[in-house]
Amino acid sequence: MSEPQSAYHMPVLLQPVVAAAAGAVRAVDATLGGGGHAEALRRAGLELLAIDRDPAAIVFSRERLGDHAIRYLRAAYDSPAALSAVAGFHPGFILLDLGVSSRQLDATERGFTFRPGAALDMRMEGRGSSAADLLNQAGGDTLERIFADYGDERRARRLAREIVRRRERSEFRTSDDLVNAIRATLGPRAGPSEFARLFQAVRIAVNDELDGLARALPAFRDALAPGGGLGVISYHSGEDRLVKLAFREWASACVCPPHQPVCTCRGRPLGRLEPRKPILPPDTEIASNPRARSAKLRIFRVGHAD
């Protein structure tokens, strides 16, 4: 099968995603993006529910894929509307690709990029507080937590203080303002890898991404038909850690505290990890799509009905 590609997004880990959906009749692509995964799943014969919070993604993918065997929903995947729609769809497979699409990254006006002069926006839906609002208004402790927890930055406190100091003179408005604060903290040799990691931390905070993921995971698990699979592609250590711990707990027969003498929990696993370790992109995929280099796919298969 040739890999679906578009100017919008090159789907990551496409073959293992399609393999994980084998045997399903209906699938949910809860992060539609440019529709690459959705296209491949539909080619495999599945009926689809396609969800995205970004209106541009819905418009683009609908024009590209049409309406045959696919329903579209514009909503955040963790919203009540999305969770209700997924539960009513009774899918055999659900995919969450937590990455930002290439088109979003490359659109300067969307503010996801650290290219010079890009507005500090980063809002998936264009509503609520922007990245500039966060950087200009959040307290130093909040900024430190964002950079430490979401950016794995050991100098998070210094960076937070630098941002607070700089915004007293001039508001943060563009990517250059944040890049300059990062360079002032990490040193002049700081480059794209540091910028990408710390801009990503701000994006996660602006869009409440980790809390949304924590809300959605158990709801998606419970929506699956017996034997169904939940696949999550993550690109960030915090995302992957959350998914790994959730899947590991669900696969455990007992989740009681270690020293509790008698088991009082469910006493059975809810399913299994498939496989036990994350699936990583091969070198050939990374060579053709460098944005895949940090991707990890974890799959949880719910238990069969008794």
Question: What does this protein structure show overall?
Answer:
This protein has helices at residues 14-20, 36-43, 55-65, 80-89, 102-106, 131-137, 140-150, 156-167, 175-186, 192-206, 209-223, 237-250, 283-288, and strands at 26-29, 47-52, 70-74, 93-97, 229-234, 271-273, 296-302. By secondary structure, the protein is of the alpha/beta class. It folds into 2 domains: 14-103 and 209-302, Rossmann fold (3-Layer(aba) Sandwich), CATH 3.40.50.150; 125-206, Putative methyltransferase TM0872, insert domain (DNA polymerase, domain 1, Orthogonal Bundle). The chain has a 7-stranded mixed sheet, with helices on both faces. Strand 1 (26-29), helix 2 (36-43) and strand 2 form a beta-alpha-beta unit. Helix 4 runs parallel beside helix 11 and helix 7 packs across helix 8. The radius of gyration is 20 Å and the shape is globular. The two termini are 36 Å apart. The model has no long low-confidence stretch (mean pLDDT 91).
